[in-house]
Write a structure and sequence with these properties.
This protein has 324 residues and is of the alpha/beta class. 47% of the residues lie in helices and 13% in strands. The protein folds into 2 domains: 3-228, Spore Coat Polysaccharide Biosynthesis Protein SpsA, Chain A (Alpha-Beta Complex), CATH 3.90.550.10; 233-299. Helix 2 (47-57) links the parallel strand 2 and strand 3.
Length: 324
Amino acid sequence: MDVSIVIPVFNEDESVPELCAWIQRVVRENEFSYEIILVDDGSTDNSWEVITSLHHSDPNIKGIRFQRNYGKSAALNEGFRIALGRVVITMDADMQDSPDEIPALRNMILNEGFDLVSGWKKVRHDPLSKTLPSKFFNRTTAVITKIPLHDFNCGLKAYRNKVVKGIEVYGEMHRYIPVIAKWAGFRRIGEKVVQHRARKYGYTKFGGLGRGLKGLLDLASIMFVGKYGKRPMHFFGPLGVLCFLVGFVLSVYLLIAKLSNMREFGLTNKPHFYGALTAMVIGSQLFLTGFIAELISRNSPGRNFYLIEEKLGYTSARGDGPTD
């Protein structure tokens, strides 16, 4: 199969039919074999009824329906698990991403050697309340991760199939998929300027200060997990040992001072004494934290699973294969 298009859907019953018709026109004009995977992330409108109708008219349109709203990362993760195409393309369901970009994105993956290509909405049709924080966080992420992208959170991306099978997206990590891919060893990451269309239906599901704060926390989390997720002792261990040694050396010094001047030296009256004890306790706690984290990381399951209420086009809840 040439391309899989994975589209998270949350209360987008108005835009989904038009978007699918546009995608069908583009892939058929280019003679691509395709599948469109619509992941209904617990919509409360008629989105699933629309997806069901589209599947009956075109079996290449497949659906996953979550029992409740898990978020965009969960929707992408489940879509990735069942995607069969050599190239997997993601886009949002609100029609702000243009399906006309599909052939060029596919070409960059297959013919230019990229593992992942991220869209860059250079000209945006969003209010300043969204564009200014977005520029700040994109710049911050690029500097910290050393990935030269301008728009990490762009929903329009293309992946080599082995990339989506080799990563896991959870929480709110969808905005940092290029970072996750880099930590997984997929370093050929490119960028393409793409069209950003004004919203035609509905309203944005994201925005506000809460999104910015979550973005910073997610960045800290992904940097830690990417570097120390399988070896947490390498992070906590050195900190714990260093902190304990500082407290221990200070304690020895105070003990020697006390023994050399028994009468005039009040050990428990010295602030350094309590500082030394605190450093030793904190050092021990950090070391034990690393030890326990190491045990947990070595025995934890590798995948998150979500409650899926219904599927269209696949036989099992885990995406073992397509139906006939």
